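Think of the structure tokens as a kind of shorthand, similar to the way a musician reads notation: each symbol stands for something richer, in this case the local conformation of the backbone. In the example below we present two proteins back to back. Begin with the first one, reading the sequence and then the tokens, and try to describe in your own words what changes along the chain.
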Amino acid sequence: MMKIFYSVKSQFYADGTVTAELNGTRRAFEKPDNTKTQFIHKDVYIDWFPSKREAYAKIKEVKGSSR
């Protein structure tokens, strides 16, 4: 059975700035792989969650880590 997965894009900049947002959804049988991409001035993470509630909890967690 296909499920809907929610992605959260988190960006951690070299200057300490942190952003996080709901990045989209994907219909799939299994959860997509999480990814990390490193750039010169930031790291970008895409994390997948099985529910919107868990995705928003991750956004809250990431934004809380910037304080």
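Once you have a description of the first chain, move to the second and do the same.
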Amino acid sequence: MTIHLLGSMATSENLADKLERALIHLRPKIITVETSQEWIDYENQHNEDIKKDIMYVFIEGYVDLGIIKYVESYINQQLASFDVAVSRKFTQNHNIPIHFVGDPRDIESFYNSMKYRIKKLFFSLTRQTSKTIVQSISTEEQCENARYRIFEDLINDDIYLEELVPDLAEIFIGSIEDKRNKYTANNLLQLTRENPNSRIVNVGNPLNLVDDVMNRTLYSKIKHLNPERSTLIRY
């Protein structure tokens, strides 16, 4: 049994192609995606309202207009992803199962948490270190490799999440994310017990590949299984 955590936020056609190449290279027998049908349905029903709602946070004055492109980029990163479509197409073409392993419960709380994180994130851009990080993980095509290279460096050097930028660690991973990652981890553990000889590739947030002394990221919750880790930059 092998679990491979694949860090993916495929928010462009280029990244979608990288995700497809990654899945071809990794040759999974089972694909899991860190989402739920409930969240997919919620996004589809409220996509434009969500964008307006989040943008209103910044109109209120939390973000300087000089970095508005990073606001728009982050919103698109949160709401526009090819991860499900590419993964689903791959499983259909190769006749293998796909499982949505994200927490389907309390979608409204998750959405409100996402808004809170975005507000806190861009408020923290007054600090140069935070601004540098966010600029490098923007979803603009020219920054895609830099975004994933950050997480590759953290993985390769076994750096803890808290060492990235301490204040951002608290923004990205809070109590709700901890609870949702625990739900995902339990689903993955159940799948490994039911499929002891299968290679499972989990498509999810690159942040969840990083270790965490507080045991909040997905990797930190299942690292006793020695999962492999990579991001789209490798493919």
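Compare your description with these statements about the second chain. The mean pLDDT is 78.
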